[in-house]
Structure formats: C-alpha cells, structure tokens
C-alpha cells in the first residue's frame, strides 16, 4: 500500500521544498469529503501505479486508508517529471463519472496487410457507482482489417455502467500505412 504524508502548509515555498526532497504533491478529494492535501515519494507513487492490477488502489495518509483513482496529473513540460496528481476517492454507493482505459488484445488481420492500429480514444468516460467500476474495456482487435474500426457502441458495457461517450465515436481502427 502506498503511504503518504499530510501537508501542513500548501503555499509555494513548502511545495518547492517537498518537491526538492523527492515528493509528489497530491490532493485527495470526494463528494461530501474535505480535501486532503498530501505528498507521496515520487518513485514510490510511480511504482505503485504501475504495479496495480485494478483501476482503483489504496493509499494511506495520516493513518486513514482511501480507495482512490487517478483523476488528473500534471507533468513538467520539458522533463516530463510528474509534478502534481489529483486522486479521487471511490465511494461504493455514490454514482460518479470515471475515465476507463481501453485495452486491446490479439493481433489484427490488417497488420499483415500493411496496416497500423490507431487509437483514437485511450480512455472512455462512464458513469457508475464505485462498486460497479470496471478495471478496463477489453477490445479484441483480431478481426480488424485495413479500413475497419471499433466504435463506442461496439464495446460491451457491464451492468450498472452507463457510457457517456457518443455511440458513433471511433475508439480505434486499422488504417493503411503510408
């Protein structure tokens, strides 16, 4: 479990000092809950996020455990080092909007016909309760040939989850390489 520290001061001087010590600045929030200003060791945070097998993961700040998802993050424009992350608490019975990643499986037929797979949308917006939160939308690209695409309406949605994207939007497709 990822452990963080509570930030006493949220001014820029304290923030710069924490970043210099190798911390990632974070905010934890949810509906009906006061914001928690905290910081995590940058390398520990990256390892925890890469090692997680579900969309939500646990963090511990000031003795309290939160089930969170990454809502938004900011990177340095030149070095691409994480500067800030917003974590949203997943409430089991509260309906909220989440971005769910799209994961592809298989090898498309179009790749053998000099095609390329192009991802138009890597994450899809859904509305659901925290207990119904899917980990990812898994799309099999094996039947895709050059010129074919997968639309939002082609992706199976689990019970209790409402898709918030327009149905006619292409998620991924196979195009001819130039």
Write structural notes for this entry.
- The strands form three sheets. Strands 1-3-2-6-5-4 form a six-stranded mixed barrel. A four-stranded mixed beta sheet has the order 10-7-9-12, with no helix packed on it. Strands 8-13-11 form a three-stranded antiparallel beta sheet.
- The chain contains three helices and 13 strands.
- The mean pLDDT is 93.
- It is globular, with a radius of gyration of 19 Å.
- Strand 5 (64-75) and strand 6 (82-89) form a beta hairpin.
- It is mainly β and 178 residues long.
- The termini are far apart.
- Helix content is 13%, strand content 49%.
Rg is 19 Å
If helices are DSSP runs of H or I spanning 4 or more residues, what is the number of helices? 3
CATH class of the largest domain equals Mainly Beta
Oligomer: single chain
Structural class: mainly beta
- The helicity comes to 10-25%
β-strand percent reads: over 45%
**Count the strands?**
13
Subunit structure: Part of the 50S ribosomal subunit; part of the 5S rRNA/L5/L18/L25 subcomplex. Contacts the 5S rRNA. Binds to the 5S rRNA independently of L5 and L18.
Keywords: Ribonucleoprotein, Ribosomal protein, RNA-binding, rRNA-binding
Function: This is one of the proteins that binds to the 5S RNA in the ribosome where it forms part of the central protuberance.
Protein name: Large ribosomal subunit protein bL25
Give a quick set of tags describing it.
178 residues; mainly beta; Ribosomal Protein L25, Chain P; RNA Polymerase Alpha Subunit, Chain A, domain 2; 6-stranded mixed barrel; 4-stranded mixed β-sheet; Ribosomal_bL25_C; ribosomal protein; Large ribosomal subunit protein bL25; rRNA-binding
């Amino acid at each position: 479990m990822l452990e963080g520290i509570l930030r006493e001061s949220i001014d820029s001087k304290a923030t710069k000092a924490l970043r210099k010590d190798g911390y990632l600045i974070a905010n934890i929030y949810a509906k009906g809950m006061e914001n928690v200003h905290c910081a995590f060791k940058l390398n520990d945070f990256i390892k925890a996020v890469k090692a997680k097998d579900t969309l939500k993961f646990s963090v511990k700040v000031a003795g309290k455990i939160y089930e969170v998802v990454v809502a938004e993050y900011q990177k340095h424009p030149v070095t691409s080092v994480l500067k800030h992350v917003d974590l949203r608490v997943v409430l089991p019975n509260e309906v909220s909007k989440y971005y769910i990643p799209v994961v592809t499986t298989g090898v498309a037929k179009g790749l053998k016909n000099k095609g390329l797979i192009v991802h138009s949308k890597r994450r899809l917006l859904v509305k659901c309760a925290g207990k119904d939160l899917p980990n990812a939308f898994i799309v099999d690209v094996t039947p895709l040939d050059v010129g074919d695409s997968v639309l939002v309406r082609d992706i199976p949605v689990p019970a209790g989850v409402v898709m918030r994207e327009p149905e006619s939007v292409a998620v991924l497709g196979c195009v001819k390489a130039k």
